[in-house]
Amino acid sequence: MKKKDKISRPNPQAVGTETGTAPSVPIMNQTENPKIRLENINYYYGKGTPFEVKALDSVSLDIHAGKLTGIIGHTGSGKSTLVQLLNGLSRAGEGRVLLDGTDIWAKPKDIGRIRYRVGLVMQYPEYQLFEETVFADIAFGPRNMGLSEEEIRERVVEAAAFAGVPADLMDKSPFDLSGGQKRRVAIAGIMAMRPEVLVLDEPAAGLDPQGRHTIFQGIRHYNRNTGCTVLIVSHSMEDMAQYCDDVVVMAHAKVLMAGDRDYIFSRADELEAVGLDIPQVTKLCQLLRRGGMPMPAGLYTVEAAEEALEAIFSQAKGQRKGGKQA
Amino acid sequence: MKGFAFGQYYPARSVLHRMDPRAKVICAVAYIVASFLCKNTFSFLLLLVSAFALILISRIPMKVVLRSIKALIFIMAFTAVLNIFWIVDTSEGAAPLVDFWVIKIYAKGLYHAAFILVRILAMVIGTGLFLTYTTTPIALTDALESLLRPLAKIKVPVHAFAMMMTIALRFIPTIMEETEKIMSAQKARGADFTTGSLAKRAKALIPIIVPLFASAFRRADELATAMECRCYHGGEGRTKLRVLKYHGRDAFALIFVALFIGGIVAINIFGRKYGWLYTM
Amino acid sequence: MENTPFIHVQNLSYSYVGEDDKPIPVLKNLSLDIREGEYVVILGHNGSGKSTFAKLLNLVVDDYTFAEGTITVDGVEVMSPDLTDEEVLNLRKNVGMVFQNPDNQLVATVVEEDVAFGPENLGIPQSELRARVDEALATVGMTDYAHHEPHRLSGGQKQRVAIAGIIAMKPRCMIFDESTAMLDPVGRREVLETIEKLNREEGITVISITHYMDEAARADRVIVLSDGQLVLDGTPGEVFTHSDTLRAVGLDLPQCTAVSQHLITKNLPVHGEINTPEQCAEAILNAWKRM
């Protein structure tokens, strides 16, 4: 069991779910100097109509700088709405979104600049490709930023490498690529804007296992090498467990809990209670504990489970031997 | 855009809503014919009254109907003004009401303008209430397919046309949603659709239109395969889950509309005979 | 139960027509049998040829220039050039297909009319159509949505409507071509439960193409394709023991299977069919208690 950097972490809080009506909600996953802070966000669809739906309910949340944060929750839990708030694609009726401590809507005219600082890769981004060549498509964002040709070229090459787009595809039409390749081109198109925060909505949806791993490994590598703060929205707890530092769990328009992986998966029972699929190994460990085995709580990777089981079995063997000798 | 409803179908419980769509198509056509048959003040008055009676029967709020007329207000005003200034009464003893510089306005012009306004109003309200407000687009498609079926004998692809309409109706909301998604995606890459010259804005649409077309073709391809797998092979030998049936109310409505036309024709004849005011 | 398999595939090879009419091979010398009532999962990475295989079973590929070998469905050779239109329709009626994108297979603007689309094409009399539609909607649990517009449904619901549209044709076999790939976990669960119900209760032969390993774990039989060739074929338990082969063809083991296999390599007495967390926990607990 590796529990590195547990000490330096501020204690993640999970209040706020019960005190939703309070005027100021405690900030989940609070930290000093967060990259992004959401303050008391309320978001409604169809406000004032009979079909009014509260998509985000008193959400206060910190996203830590430089971390890879996963956002998980059911369809309709508010996670996609949340994502669109971060780069100003939509604006909450109540509450503030702070980027490096500044309200992104402080100057509404400059919201375009916020979109370069917070890059958003939408779901199934391959359907946004339109240029004649892969190169031109990745260059679309940087070109809109008004950069020099030289700078654009440099950024495109860099982003393509991070996203795993081979150099020999650069002059091909994006429409001739395979599904997985198109996806990577679309992701490169956002990375090429060199955003400070990269947000990806279901980056691996519909891909086969190998495609999933390639995408997630690429994103993690990008995060580690550039120091860019990365947020991933996903349904898959197993992917979250494997790749993310922090996890934000959304349910019923609220943040149910937020914190680092160890903390989140130690509360696996609560995740299950809101109907989320916990990783299979976490489920297994839970069942083993119920069966009386001394498994540690909150395991979420195959390796950790294997390690723990081996230890338990060797201890049991030791006891048996000891028993025979006695 | 999620709540987008194609056409203006307004759900309510009225006899107009329950009528067979074919009867409604026939009624709408007959109503347009009737509005063109009107010739004098009395027939136009009858037309105007009938239009408002239709609104009451349909149980659709007056303001909803008036909203659709609002869109036409410019055209209506334009035709009215045109009639007021252009019509010259050449009959004996007709003096202009206003005679100023080149402008001559005759009473006949005012009447004509009023007639035209009533005609447009009645046509919009009539077709709206018989068709778009009370009939779902899909029922309308069914009705057209059924009414045009005789044309299939002269090789008009009536079934294919109806199928196309159905698929279009099915996919319009999907494609609207997709457009919104693609716009968001391109905005996230710094695309700007709202500022700049017209040419710049037109160019800014390329990043939306190209992916939209690509996706529409992909959808078309997948849908065609799926339809083939579901044994689609054209209209031949096809049965239908929903079969249109005429009811008593439909016969009643058709007879009523026929009587209405008859009444207007009668008013015209009497009007001419007895020299009623302001015939067209 | 029967001696002749429902689907019999013999030396099937297929290539797409590429640039300059060059063949791009997709399936290579594939032979397999599927018996009536089986629940078969076909696994493979993207581009392994699994979708092409499914389309061949329904005669909906575009070009047969490079198609070799035979496919027999219920005794009828489907790639034979003398197949009549009626036989083609009969084949498609008997072997229904559900695709990946739920949006792109619904035709009508009202759920029940979409379900009726297939039987309407088959010319089922109007009196029976109603019964078939109601029955199919009930089977997939969508009766309450009969008058809804498809575009307002969730992904899982749309996919269940698509399934109902196939059931209403009364097929003997259904092919699911990555039908859960675009769904969220809730939608996936709904669709999987429906698929299992169709197989267990209605006796419909199910061929499910996927790359989710936990879906494979629930089937009777798993076939693994890679680069157009059959790599593994057996019960989930048998197939999952070949962890190296699976990894080599780009597939993951279910986490539980990985854990139990690791314990087995350490000579720990973990036995039995281990495909679900429950089975795995039981096997490990048994081993532990016996220590």
Describe this structure in words.
- The complex is a heterotrimer of chains A (326), B (280) and C (291).
- Chain A has 326 residues and is an alpha/beta fold.
- Chain A has helices spanning 79-86, 111-117, 134-144, 149-163, 179-191, 209-226, 237-243, 261-265, 268-273, 280-290, 302-325; strands spanning 36-45, 53-63, 68-72, 94-99, 102-103, 118-121, 197-201, 229-234, 246-251, 254-260.
- In chain A, the strands form two sheets. Chain A has a six-stranded mixed beta sheet, sandwiched between helices. Chain A has a four-stranded antiparallel beta sheet with strand order 2-1-4-5, covered by helices on one side.
- Chain A starts with 35 loop residues before the first strand and ends with a helix.
- By secondary structure, chain B is mainly α.
- Chain B has a domain at 15-147 and 244-274.
- Chain B has eleven helices and two strands, in the order αααααββαααααα.
- Mean pLDDT of chain B is 86; it is low at 1-6.
- With 291 residues, chain C is an alpha/beta fold.
- Chain C has a six-stranded mixed beta sheet with strand order 6-7-8-3-9-10, sandwiched between helices. Chain C has a four-stranded antiparallel beta sheet with strand order 2-1-4-5, covered by helices on one side.
- The mean pLDDT of chain C is 91.
- Chains in contact: A-B, A-C, B-C.
- Chains A and C meet through helix 6, helix 10 and helix 11 of A and helix 6, helix 10 and helix 11 of C.
Q: Main sheet of chain B, how many strands, which sense, barrel?
A: 2 strands, antiparallel
Unreliable stretches covering 5 or more consecutive residues of chain A: 1-23
Query: Mean pLDDT across all residues of chain B, rounded?
Result: 86
- Terminal CA distance of chain A reads 32 Å
Low-confidence stretches of chain B: 1-6
What Rg of chain A do the Cα atoms give?
22 Å
Structural class of chain B: mainly alpha
Task: Please identify the oligomeric state.
Answer: heterotrimer
Beta-strand portion of chain B reads: under 5%
Beta strand count of chain B: 2
> Which topology of the largest domain in chain A does CATH recognise?
Rossmann fold
> DSSP strand (E) fraction of chain A?
15-25%
> How would the global form of chain A be characterised?
globular
Q: Helical region count of chain B?
A: 11
Shape of chain B: flat
Mean pLDDT of chain A: 87
What is the architecture of the largest domain in chain A at the second tier of CATH? 3-Layer(aba) Sandwich
Largest sheet of chain A: 6 strands, mixed
The end-to-end span of chain B amounts to 45 Å
Q: Tally the helices of chain A: what do you get? A: 11
